[in-house]
Amino acid sequence: MLSSQQLVDKLVCANLKALVPYESARRLFAASDNGATAQVPVWLNANESPFANDYALDCARLNRYPDCQPASVIKAYAAYAGVNNKQLLVSRGADEGIELLIRAFCTPGQDRILICPPTYGMYAISAQTCNVGVETAPLLADFSLDLDAIKALKDKVNLVFICSPNNPTGTSVAAQQIKAVLEHFADSALVVVDEAYIEFDATSSFAPQLVNYPNLVILRTLSKAFALAGIRCGFTLANDVIIHTLLKVIAPYPLPEPVAQIASQALSDKGLALMNGQVSQIAQQKQRLKQALNCFADIELVGDDKANFILFRCAQKQGLMDFLVSAKVFIRDQSKQRNLNNCLRITVGDAEQNQQLLDLIGQFFQRAGQ
Ligand SMILES: Cc1ncc(COP(=O)(O)O)c(C=O)c1O
Fold first, then answer.
1. Where does the pLDDT of residue 40 fall: very low under 50, low under 70, confident under 90, or very high at 90 and above?
2. Disulfide engineering: 132 pairs with which of 127, 186, 188, 367, CB 3.0-4.6 Å?
């Protein structure tokens, strides 16, 4: 009889053998938040919202399977995004949208996607889990797209992922650059613009361009500005035949009924007003944090501030990380990403959390200077 380990070794898909799963912010620090001390952890590492809003739940339909694409959510998000209902798919977070695109448009063992690092890690991980190859065209030193490198990959990739505003650099990609990519790949690839953070840079959305570019796909989420990372709800915007194809591979009941109810409330007029107010508060806090961080001689701000986080370089990044973790204040190490040596990323929290973080950073440099 083979042991489970022997069976796994024998049967596991070849492309999964070397795969390191995505180190989500929660996975990384789950052990540090063991409740052993009374200290309340401060989570500034996953670009979540600091606000927790209240919602009502109607349990009358919980005995029934939910709709695959709940009409109330589709209608409300389509109105919010300025697209029609058929140009929209709702899924378990934008992460599921990424995976559906790869499963629907890339043949395993044969096709490839293109990513522009440093960028969001899930494009590559999703591709690897689907046995789909990953081509890279790294961002230039100013974090703009390297158009020559991207264009050279024409006919080699089926999907091009562009993250704007980009995680973790906080930079938005210039509209002219995105248009150049859309045009270059017009007859060969879908161009996926990940707008997970678009509410923090609202005027730069590509949603109005869906009518002009048949190969444009946009990813959105309720996890960031809408303060609903916990419900796992994201959207894919694209022309109807693309959405229709994604519906072939989505699970029959992707969206739990409570998620649909909460999403509908978040997308109501009241919900949108709440979201807009909270985005403004985060913008204010972000400026405050930036100013304060700029006062530390050993900190150099990196990238831009188009999202709800700040990236910075610090020669003593490991010491600072360890010090913050020991105080249960969690930020994210980005130093393994291309061109981001010694870089850390802070999610903008509420006033109190940001102050706590700044106080600790001050203490760290004081001690380091002694
Ligand atoms: C750029 C980007 N896209 C997508 C996601 C995932 O969003 P969701 O929570 O909707 O799966 C994230 C989460 O951090 C992100 O940073």
1. confident
2. 127
Domain co-membership, 227 together with 85: yes
For ligand 1, say whether the CB of 193 is within 6 Å of any of its atoms.
no
Q: Ligand 1: distance of its center to the CA of 319 in Å?
A: 28
Query: Which of 243, 265, 287 marks a domain boundary?
Result: 265
Q: Does the Cβ of 163 fall within 6 Å of ligand 1?
A: yes
**Residue 10 CA, ligand 1 centroid: distance in Å:** 34
Q: Tell me whether residue 106 is exposed, middle or buried, using C-beta atoms within 10 angstroms of its C-beta: 0 to 12, 13 to 18, 19 or more.
A: buried
**Which tokens is 287 given?**
């400026």
Statement: the pTM of the whole predicted model exceeds 0.90: yes
Same domain, 211 and 191: yes
The rounded distance, in Å, linking the Cα atoms of 41 and 34 is 10
Query: Same structural domain for residues 84 and 174?
Result: yes
223 touches ligand 1 (CB under 6 Å)? yes
Q: Which atom of ligand 1 is least distant from the CA of 94?
A: 10
Residue 30 has pLDDT above 70, yes or no: no
What confidence tens digit (pLDDT) does each residue in 312-355 have? 999 999 999 999 999 999 999 999 999 999 999 999 999 999 99
Whether 8 is covered by a domain: the verdict is no
User: If you write DSSP's letter for every residue of 4-44 in order, what string do you get?
Assistant: HHHHHHHHS-GGGTTPPPP--HHHHHTTT-SS-SSPPPEE-
pLDDT digits (tens, 9 = 90+) for 231-275: 999 999 999 999 999 999 999 999 999 999 999 999 999 999 999
Question: Which two three-digit tokens encode residue 337?
Answer: 């990403």
Ligand 1 mean position, distance from CA 301 (Å)? 23
